[in-house]
Amino acid sequence: MSRVILAPMEGLADDVLRAVLTSAGGYDWCVTEFVRVTNTVLPHSCYTRFSPELKNGSRTACGTPVRIQLLGSEPTLLGLNAAHLAQLKPAGIDLNFGCPTPLVNRHRGGAALLDEPELLHSIASAVRRAVPPEIPVTAKMRLGIEDTHRALDCARALEAGGADELVVHARTKADGYRPLVRWEHVARIRQVVKLPLIANGEVWTLADYRNIRAATGCDDVMLGRGAVADPLLASRIRRGDTEHASTADWEAIKQLISEFWLRVQRKLPSHQSPGRLKQWLGMMQRSYPQATELYRGIREMRNAAEISIALQRQNLELDLAHPGRI
To answer: CA-CA distance, 236 to 52, in Å (whole number)?
Structure first.
């Protein structure tokens, strides 16, 4: 059966959004934002801060497994951290070779390593050796830095290093998040590796989902920003729907927004929670015109209580007296 995975998204898909998106259904597992490994073995508290789900059997509130993503460039240190993390029994450990941001890349992290397949092999080998066999070790890579000429070498290196599965984001580092997407290169990788391959990149709709599977030959797909823009996309895929987001879906979306807002208020100070809600609504405008109306209604608000009142006026169900009830 085809699988659908929720992508790691730095600065966006934290435990709050993971809980809400997975509660809508359709996901086989999800991946945390990256945990940066630099020069020390991180304490367990660092991992549980990134993934409170570790205290719940490494699952979201609705039971979706959560894999922890590590980012770094030193094989021995990554292996030591993976061994320490394994004591918390994560649902899996993922390795980040895809982040394109300049800050991360300047410090030899993420996609900056894609010109060094030998290093990718060493990292995957060190982590796989350090982790019990029952814990999956996966990797997520882009197609290269400036071009795709080493993509096959990188994929082979990760497979030889012991990665159990590989996610390929069908862009180079230089591509960033521009609409350009290179699904055909994922198909080429699929021809040279035997490990399960998961396609990722520019899937916003049901049509995109069908097209990426056809173009890459991959059964499994990872959803990123498209999952945030349309929180019901994974459940539509799972049901085999043929229609995109509809007006009728907005009632279900309203329930997700209510849950998100309550969770955000529980996690963040009141001056930070409005920004998180606006960020999500801003992205949902792509799929739902109702999100545009709601976003415009709260855009200038800075006070969490004021936003709660505005949401209630839009018939969102909120418990203002107990915002942390979820």
So the answer is: 28
DSSP state of 41: P
16 membership: H or E segment, kind and range = helix 15-23
Residues recorded for the chain = 326
The predicted-structure confidence for 52-70, as pLDDT tens digits, reads as follows 999 999 999 999 999 999 9
Residue spans in the chain of domains classed CATH 3.20.20.70: 4-239
| Overall pTM > 0.90 | yes
Residues 112, 144: Cα–Cα separation, whole Å: 8
Beta-bridged to residue 34, according to DSSP, are 69
Q: What is the DSSP letter of 59?
A: B
Per-residue pLDDT at 130 exceeds 50: yes
Known catalytic residues? Answer: 99
d(CA 37, CA 71): 6
Judge contact between 281 and 291, C-beta under 8 A.
yes
Structure tokens at 91: 């649902």
pLDDT in tens, 175-193: 999 988 999 999 999 999 9
Q: Residue 119 above 90 pLDDT?
A: yes
Kindly report the CA angle at 206 between 10 and 180, in degrees rounded to 5?
55
Model confidence at 325: pLDDT above 70:
no
3.90.650.10, 1.10.760.10, 3.20.20.70, 3.40.50.2000: CATH of 4-239: 3.20.20.70
Give the Cα separation of 217 and 1 in Å (integer).
14
Q: What was the pLDDT predicted at 245? A: 67
Tokens of 286: 């792509």
* CATH code of domain 247-313: 1.20.225
Query: Which residues make up the CATH 1.20.225 domain(s) of the chain?
Result: 247-313
